[in-house]
Amino acid sequence: MKTYFRLLSFAKPIEKFAIPYIITTIFSVIFSTLNLALLAPLLQTLFSGKQVFAKLGPKPSLYNIMGTFNYYVQYMLNTYGKWGTLEFVCATIVVSALLGNLFRYLSQRTMENLRVHTLLNFRRAVFNNVMGLHLSYFNNERKGNIISKIASDVQVVQFSVTSTLQVIFKEPLTLIAYMAWLFAISVNLTLYSLLIIPISGFVISKIVKRLKAQAIASQQTYGNMISYLDEALSGIKIIKAFNATEFIKNRFDAENTKYSSIIRSMARRQQLASPVSEFFGITMVACIVLYGGHLIFTNDASSLSPQNFITYVAIFSQVMRPARAISDSFSSIHSGIAAGERVLALIDEKPLIVDAPDAVAVTGFNESIEFKNVSFAYQEKIVLSDINFTVPKGKTIALVGPSGGGKSTLMDLIPRFMEPQSGEILIDGKNIQAVKLNSLRSLMGIVNQESILFNDTIFNNIAFGKTNVTEEEVETAARIANAHNFILETEKGYQTNIGDRGTKLSGGQRQRICIARAVLNNPPIMLLDEATSALDTESEKLVQDALNNLMKNRTSLIIAHRLSTIQNADVIVVLENGKIAEQGNHQQLINNNGLYKRLIDMQTFNID
């Protein structure tokens, strides 16, 4: 129940929906019950025989529902005759049906608004929390599993939990109204009919007992299936290149078969609950007809009039509808709770990197970035150890070294994508852990080896994350990035859609779009991680020229494996096994005849 009430907290302000829903539902139940109750006077009017007039006794107490009902029916017969009474009863039934359905519509519309409102808040909370999580979280989680939670599980919660909220109020109220009328018609018959209800409840509870465990298994399997789908679509070129199509198809099919099996088993249990409750309901009606017929045939003192007995059977046949809805809700709530627990676990995941309570914003970069005794490890594996060096403002620092030396990790520490286990990173003398994340990252432009683009226009990719950007500003950034000419050659120029992850462009074109995006941001610090390593010679030259334009009058930290990229750097830091092996400019390191010289001779500046 704790999970259920927490899920309902996303419906706040729930009173905005609950109050009108309660009011409209109460009136809907009243008029719906009245429709059935009016069967008795309708039948009494039709089959009252020739003797319509009967002496009216004293007016019954309002607590005597049936007595009061019969009193006013007889009063109508005596006053207006059979035809007048029949007209009044029929008109009352029509008006009651109209009002009952009107209020039912209003209550359903209110509940739908609540459902949509809850889904909006729930999905927003999940997505916002995911966007705030640290990068290492995404390295350890399946992307398909996260997508499944945000897309599928949230939808399950919406329909199962909010629908149960509807059932919890409306169906018990309807059941109470029907039962009150049944007791008013005959106490003995109603008590007799209730004997079989506990048996029905026990059987249904046994049927739905395992649904929650199956729901958890189905959602986990669905997440795996989405993950396989994402991997297959992302890596379709490699799959075909390695003739792995059948392997991928078989892997997906195995998970799909497993998911289908679980869903089939759940459906059997859920679908069995309704027929079982309906069977018990029909059995109860048959027993009531036998017992009620016995009372009528034997002319017992407590016997029913024929019209009241028919009304009783009609109302009792409707009792099973809310009872069946309640039993069905218990079977579906397990899926909702299981999905809710998975999504809440994602919401409860806390980012490891957050602003300190007393963090301050930085508005510019004036002096230097300094590493002081910085160490970093992935669990037990040490990646960086006692790193000390300074990046002065306006200088270009190159990071080189063998693969696995810690270059990319070191660069990721500067925008606080990760946190060092020890040591400090200072920007203008301030520890970056005491600086607000947004202000820190606004000082930096990042261009990676992988060109991260979005399925949108060239214009929107360059202007990404910014509003009120003019065409002139975007075009200026594209010219600096050597991208303007090829953009004009595309079908719609800057409004050309570049496809999923920019697949409609070449590698060099994608990278120049990324550089244009960084130029438009106009940051004082540039972080370039193997920005030209994946390009051919011609594209590399164009991108390198764009990078040179980008680095003018900026502080730059670059990772590269090609001599042409790093030989003009002011300082070259050589990393090996997480430690600084040597540092200096190109000529100094050549003269040292150390690791850098060996790497130059081998031309093996590999990427991490």
Secondary structure topology:
Layout: H1 2-8, H2 15-37, H3 39-46, H4 65-131, H5 135-140, H6 143-185, H7 187-193, H8 197-208, H9 211-234, H10 236-241, H11 245-297, H12 306-348, E1 368-378, E2 381-392, E3 396-400, H13 407-413, E4 422-427, E5 430-431, H14 437-441, E6 444-447, H15 458-462, H16 471-480, H17 484-488, H18 507-521, E7 525-529, H19 537-551, E8 555-559, H20 563-566, E9 571-576, E10 579-584, H21 586-592, H22 595-602
Parallel strand pairs: 3-8, 3-9, 6-7, 7-8
Antiparallel strand pairs: 1-2, 1-4, 4-5, 9-10
Helix pairs in contact: 2-4, 2-6, 3-4, 3-12, 4-6, 4-12, 6-7, 6-9, 6-12, 8-11, 9-11, 9-12, 11-12, 16-18, 18-19
What does this protein structure show overall?
The chain has 608 residues and is an alpha/beta fold. The mean pLDDT is 79. It has helices at 2-8, 15-37, 39-46, 65-131, 135-140, 143-185, 187-193, 197-208, 211-234, 236-241, 245-297, 306-348, 407-413, 437-441, 458-462, 471-480, 484-488, 507-521, 537-551, 563-566, 586-592, 595-602; strands spanning 368-378, 381-392, 396-400, 422-427, 430-431, 444-447, 525-529, 555-559, 571-576, 579-584. Among the domains are: 16-348, ABC transporter type 1, transmembrane domain (ABC transporter transmembrane region fold); 455-522, no CATH class.
Q: How would you concisely characterize the structure shown here?
A:
The protein is an alpha/beta fold and 608 residues long. It has helices at residues 2-8, 15-37, 39-46, 65-131, 135-140, 143-185, 187-193, 197-208, 211-234, 236-241, 245-297, 306-348, 407-413, 437-441, 458-462, 471-480, 484-488, 507-521, 537-551, 563-566, 586-592, 595-602, and strands spanning 368-378, 381-392, 396-400, 422-427, 430-431, 444-447, 525-529, 555-559, 571-576, 579-584.
